[in-house]
Amino acid sequence: MASSSNTLAEVLLSRRVQEMVVNGEQPVSLYICRDEKDAQNAPISPLAPIPIIDLSLLSSSSTEEELQRLKSALCCWGCFQAINHGIPSSFLDEIQQVTREFFRQSMEEKKKYSKGVVEEMEGYGGDPSPEQGQFLDWQDRLLLTVYPYDLRVPKFWPQNPQSFSEILENYTCKMRMVTKLVSKSMAKSLHLEENCFLEQFGEGATLQARFNHYPCCQRPDIVLGLKPHSDGTGYTIILQDIEGLQILQNQQWLTVPTVPNALFILMGDQMEIMTNGIFKSPVHRVITDKEKVRTSIAVFYTPEKNKEIGPQDGLVNEERPRLFKHVRDYEIIHWEHYQRGMRALHTAQV
Ligand SMILES: O=C(O)CCC(=O)C(=O)O
Ligand SMILES: [Fe+2]
Fold first, then answer.
1. N or C, fewer C-beta in 10 Å, the chain?
2. 58 CB less than 6 Å from ligand 1?
3. Model confidence at 9, in pLDDT bands (50, 70, 90)?
């Protein structure tokens, strides 16, 4: 049975944050993540010196030097800024523009693509209501499965702006190219057969696009755009327009800088499992801002449904004993933990 505070969460989640902002409403208690005293003492978050990797140096005749820079980025940070990925900057501008246009439309138009409040993941709205005691995120989002094609749910694909679907189709092709190159390069950087991660992900590996809209918030000191979490994916490819994303490194929150035309690529828990703990899946969050609206597009790359994944053979040996079991559909257990404000990685440990 739903508790009273869960009912309140459901009432709040049936409304859009964007609507509350337009009505001049202040965030109510369920959006508040910390008390004001803690907020006053919170240290400022410096920019994170996240390595920049030139993807053009990784294609075909990969240079060993760039591969080792990639490996080192993923061992230390679990993420990197990918430049020279082959996607024209004009196209990156276009997909960001059409995302902003989607969220600028009337509520009536956007609500044609509404998801259910309590459980449904895909569609327009907020994430399903978390467990009691967990706070809500100051954001609205549109989540769409884009690959494989037969898993798409067309009723959630916006008809307006009219170019939305075509641009997303094109972005899906580009993301597939990026995942192939990055998955192969990660394998090569660890001196493994180049297709080994692609084989673990499987032919039917899924790509989901999450369009995040973070409206302005009058209390950025106590309200977050997205709560701290690691991703349950294999890995995630993020396009951000302005700063706001932070990663936790040595117990300190650091801001991910915006690098012009870069894709920010972040390991999820399943890559940490497949690399037997060599690559890290970083905890991250999104902060809010009083004056600036933030838009990001996160593409989640996740192993095929029902497919078992586990530490790659060449990465388990006497010096490096097996840290993780084989798992299947890990993202489901990840989500159950996420809703309780917990990480799920320990459930995969041996
Ligand atoms: O908005 C962002 O930059 C990150 C979003 C994110 O972490 C997520 O959707 O899982
Ligand atoms: Fe995330």
1. N
2. no
3. confident
